[in-house]
């Protein structure tokens, strides 16, 4: 393999391919081949030996024609490292060709259909994306196919088609909560609040333990009928889902929004009794106490959950406030290391470096965030899932979240 990589570096691609083809099977037990070859290819990819990795996958696919995991990895390689044109990182046609071969070899793999759909959708080919999803639906398709189909129509602004697909999906998969959420959000977007409420309530009949549905219903009640209605929904939600930190946090926040500080404090104390190891609750309780008490509150939090990224990021904010720059940086770095998938921590870290770091630091955090491809986080998802931000790259979303954090801080200062 080293020889093959050396040949690739010297520009002798055909030699590299020949070496791999003739030696990759040597000394590998038959039952270990798939695992070993994929691991070898991924190692080569990490070292930047893309041709060698490509040759390993090409050979592996002649042996394992119907293994979807190898097809997906090979397509991923092309998508990220295809022949680089100046303006295009990766090679969409090459990835497309691999996926077309893949679904010829394994016609019923939904994973491959969805990977092909994603490739087209992310590269602004909505018609191709639509066609792939229509075919996947014809083949039966699971709930994911119906959800993605509705999302495409939502982005293209085809409200009626979006509704039809969600309704049809719900007939087939009534316990798939994401479709209920999508339908409720669709009605809310159109200003049909009563209808949205009915949707969330129907959804909860099918999925009583779905927290996002409870939270959506509570928010909607607060919008339509004020705090006491929202309070009733959240109380009911906690009855049916005890020891759920998110439901407690929503109740605390609802009281805070309406200026009921005492109520919020009482609820927070109850919440921490019921969920003593919840990082999100401890982090919120640190922010709720007056500034002089925050230090001791954060000591309590660290005793209960010292490896929780929410608590760690709340402590980082205290150091940042006290201008303890190095300590703040260390703690922010711990938060993103523990939870690289949570975009909120990256946004906080990046905002911190914009204030206190060098350009090097800023570039470094940005690069690491892009590599981590965060998908979660309350503020992150609020922005990344907004229709107008569809297809935005990680960097663009990160910068929008930083702006949102700034606005939030200004509002808090005014209070």
> Helix- and strand-based class?
mainly alpha
Low-confidence stretches are: 83-89
Largest sheet: none
Helix content: over 70%
Radius of gyration: 25 Å
Question: Could you name the key traits of this structure?
Answer:
415 residues; mainly alpha; 24 helices; globular
Written overview of the protein:
There is one protein chain. By secondary structure, the protein is mostly helical. It has a domain of 64 residues. 76% of the residues lie in helices and 0% in strands. This is Suppressor of forked domain-containing protein. Keywords: Repeat. It holds the Pfam family TPR_14. InterPro entries: HAT, Syf1-like, TPR-like_helical_dom_sf, TPR_rpt.
Task: Give a quick precis of the structure.
This protein has 415 residues and is mostly helical. 76% of the residues lie in helices and 0% in strands.
Task: Indicate the topology.
Layout: H1 2-9, H2 13-23, H3 33-46, H4 50-63, H5 68-81, H6 92-105, H7 110-122, H8 126-138, H9 143-155, H10 159-172, H11 177-189, H12 193-206, H13 211-225, H14 227-240, H15 245-257, H16 261-274, H17 279-288, H18 294-304, H19 309-321, H20 325-338, H21 343-356, H22 359-372, H23 378-384, H24 394-414
